[in-house]
Every structure is written in C-alpha cells, then in structure tokens.
C-alpha cells in the first residue's frame, strides 16, 4: 500500500528435504515484515561443512521458490554465514531484519549474528516443534521395515533402541490455528474462473510435486488439490506409507504458492457429484507419479472425468519422485543413521532443556 514502508526480512539455510516446519519458519519470518528474502546455501558449501546434501541446488531452490511465504531468493549462500557476508546481504538486498531460529548459531566460537544484533537488525523465531529433517529421514530409513508405529513391537521397544530413534510416528501437533494460518488469504473461486483439480498423496512434499502443481495451475485460474487419507494411501501403496500423516501433507500443500484450495480426505474416485459441486473444468494428473508399492489399483478413478472429456494427462516436468528420495537415503543408510543418532541426541537435549522431557512432545 502507498505510504506503508516495506520491511524486508532475510533468512537463510540449506533447506535440504524442505518440509512444512521450514514453511512455518518462513511464515513466522515474513510476519515480522512485509517482504521475505531467503538465502539458500550452495551444494558446495553444505558439502564442505557437513557432507553432501540429499537434494541438489536446483531441487532445493525449486522448493524454496515454491513456498508462498517467500518473496525473493538468494542462491549460493555460504553454509557458514560470516559477518562480512551478512553485511553484504543487508546492504545489497536492503534488509531491515535478519531472522533466525531461537537456537544459537556459533561458528569458531563467535556468534554469526553478533553484528546484526549490535545494529538492532536481528530477530529470532521459535522452532516448529515436533518436526525435523532428522525425524523425517528416520521415517524413511524404516521403509525397509514393513511396520506402522501402532504395532505392539514398536510400542514395546526400548527408547534407546536404534530403531526407536527413527520411530515412524509423527510428533507434530496439528492445531486448527496452524491450518488457519497456512490457509490465510485463500478465497473461493470467482464466477467464470476455470477450476482445475489434481489429486494425490503428496507424501514427502518434494520438487516433483511443486513442478506439477505449477503446470496444473497454468491450465486455469484456480487450482484445487485433493489430498487422500492415510488409509487410502496405505491401501494403494502398502509398506509403511504414507511417511507423513494427512495433517502434515495438508500443511505442505497449503504452503505451496500455486495452490488455491485443498480438498482434505479427497475421494479416491473423482465422482460426477464432486465435479459438479466443485465446478471443476478440468481434472489433471501428472505422467510421473509416486507409484510405490503394490496396492489395489484396479479401478479407473478418473473414469467419470474421462467420460465427460475433462480429463488430461499432464506431462511431468521432472521424473523426480518419492522413490528418488527413498533410494538416495537408502544408498547412504549408514551415513544417515550416524547423522540421525547425533542430531536426535541434540534434539532430545533441546526438548529436555525446554520441557524437562527426554524427547519432543
């Protein structure tokens, strides 16, 4: 608005395996100003500091760019943020505040953000509790074991047992407030808008998903994304899928800039009633989808859309899928297990200091 000064916020990170916890951090950062600039660490600097990232530069940039709370990105940021680089960013991008999580960022015994703090240009945000990349990679490592956390075996496991470090069950608490904050600004389609519908599991929301949602949005004016329930996804995919529960998957999709609305617990078969009720002009499906597992796929769930001649196969811009992530993690299983054990210890200490508990609430 005219006369209202823009307040520019800077955040940075690796955003490897970006998840809704990162999106929520962006939301919180953006809420401290009006324009959010996000620095994304380069593959090279991440590799030097902590080993190669799971996702390459382009995959990570696609995810950050795809988040609706982000206004601008700075690629190739160093993983270890020096005071000089921070000063350069503040000047070049006209940054008012540098924002970071409430955990200390000490490099070589120095607080990286000391200069910003002295200049009164630093603000911190609380971490999104109950979700971390460590926890999510742990769920993936369990792909080799066909079990859900409800099984008695896992409930009886010793808490220090290696597999319980990697327990599949989500600890994230989804509140209606969080859903509302992620849905802020969503409007119903105006008269005459061309409504596009795309559905799926959207498990482990990744750059392949962002790319196909961008393509789908370009087919019309308003994009509705159907998200299948945990039961449906498990029936179709088997194993211990989905890796993320329906609430986590809904938040991930809501955080994407190409999405106008989500249909939670979407019917597996797209019915004529649903097409009429949501005023769907076209139903689309990506040619590369996360088909993992051996579930029941006998029915053609798009038959009514095909009969009405409103179904289109959408060529996927990338062949990246859930299988790509799982195979990358399993190929480096030992390295990830060692990383997880180390990070899990640090996370347990964080929650212990904050709540006096052994692990996250």
UniProtKB/TrEMBL annotation:
Which Pfam families does the annotation name?
Answer: CTP_transf_like
Which superkingdom is the protein from? Eukaryota
InterPro entries reported for this sequence: CCT, Cyt_trans-like, Ect1/PCYT2, Rossmann-like_a/b/a_fold
What CDD domains would the database entry show? CCT
Enzyme class name: transferase
Read off the Gene3D superfamilies from this record.
HUPs (3.40.50.620)
Q: Which pathway, metabolic or otherwise, does it act in?
A: Phospholipid metabolism; phosphatidylethanolamine biosynthesis; phosphatidylethanolamine from ethanolamine: step 2/3; Lipid metabolism
Question: GO annotations under biological process?
Answer: phosphatidylethanolamine biosynthetic process
Alphabetized, the UniProt keywords read: Lipid biosynthesis, Lipid metabolism, Nucleotidyltransferase, Phospholipid biosynthesis, Phospholipid metabolism, Transferase
Keyword Repeat belongs to the record: no
Location of the Cytidyltransferase-like domain: 11-138, 198-312
Q: Cite a single GO MF annotation.
A: ethanolamine-phosphate cytidylyltransferase activity
Cellular-component GO terms for this entry = cytoplasm
Q: Which EC number(s) does UniProt give?
A: 2.7.7.14
Report the family membership: Belongs to the cytidylyltransferase family.
What is the protein named?
ethanolamine-phosphate cytidylyltransferase
Organism for this UniProt entry:
Eucampia antarctica
